Amino acid sequence: MAHKLAISKIEDVTHDVRQFTFEKPEGFEFTPGQAAEVGIDRDGWRDAGNPFTFTALPGWDELQFTIKIYPEHDGLTEQIGTLKVGDSFIVGEPWGTIEYKGKGTFIAGGAGVTPFIAILRDEFDAMPGLETIHVLSEEDKSGFEHGLVDKAMLERLVGNTAQHFYVCGPDPMIESVNDALKQLGADPHALVFEQ
Ligand SMILES: Cc1cc2nc3c(=O)[nH]c(=O)nc-3n(C[C@H](O)[C@H](O)[C@H](O)COP(=O)(O)OP(=O)(O)OC[C@H]3O[C@@H](n4cnc5c(N)ncnc54)[C@H](O)[C@@H]3O)c2cc1C
Asked: Which of 67, 81, 142, 146 is most buried (CB neighbours < 10 A)?
């Protein structure tokens, strides 16, 4: 069943990433890491069906999406970028295979960080040793890793592969990171990613 949800709040996270908040419909349930297919209440875009991940926690009274806007794509997110408070999203039922299975390493590319926002919010207290490493693929800036997340970088930064790995991002990145982790000895069953 699809829900028509009016936007109650819009916040800029970066110059092209925006957070949209909605009141949660009665009985709506999801687990951290799940997504839903989304359209907007505008002619031609109600059945768009692009997946976005819930970035609020299940216990909150609100639902939230964190969305990267691509004005140059002439697609759904260009339309979403023009929405105002009071406009509505059409939100389908939650689905997805990314869920927290235990301590491990989270590897996110771009908007692929969204499933981990809800998971880390939920489990943050259980992870006092959480360490964050930012990798810039283009810029070479002091204090940041530079390049693509490849086998050599994973070996250097992660080392121990006897743990869970949560991988989310563009499909080619998921494929190459998973391959590299397996080559480094990670158990394929310990790799958590959207299939
Ligand atoms: C499970 C899952 C969860 C996701 N969660 C989130 C999330 O929480 N937040 C988030 O921001 N994204 C998320 N995404 C990604 C999101 O669904 C799409 O990336 C986003 O909808 C693309 O928006 P668009 O405006 O390009 O729309 P689309 O309507 O998909 O694309 C419109 C047009 O853009 C063009 N286009 C597409 N890609 C490119 C490109 N690389 N270069 C040039 N033109 C291009 C094509 O012509 C396409 O027809 C998720 C994806 C999945 C699979």
From this structure: 67
State in Å: Cα 178 to ligand 1 middle. Answer: 21
Which of 22, 42, 65, 70 is the pocket-test mutation for ligand 1 (most atoms within 8 Å of CB)? Answer: 70
Q: Which domains does the chain have, with CATH numbers?
A: 3-91 (2.40.30.10), 104-192 (3.40.50.80)
What does the alpha-carbon distance between residue 149 and residue 154 come to, in Å, rounded to a whole number? Answer: 7
Q: What distance in angstroms lies between residue 50's CA and the mean position of ligand 1's atoms?
A: 7
Long-range (24+ apart) CB contacts under 8 A made by 123-129 are: 123/32, 127/103
Q: Tens of pLDDT along 68-107?
A: 999 999 999 999 999 999 999 999 999 998 999 998 999 9
Kindly give the distance from the C-alpha atom of residue 77 to the centroid of ligand 1, in angstroms, as a whole number: 7
The pLDDT assigned to 122 comes to 78
Cα-based angle 124, 126, 127 (whole degrees, multiple of 5) = 65
pLDDT band at 125 (very low <50, low <70, confident <90, very high): low
The proportion of the chain whose per-residue pLDDT surpasses 70, expressed as a percent, equals 97
In the predicted structure, residue 4 carries a pLDDT above the cut 80: yes
Nearest CA to ligand 1 atom 32: 75
Maximum distance among all alpha carbons in the chain?
51
CA of 117 to the centre of ligand 1 (A): 18
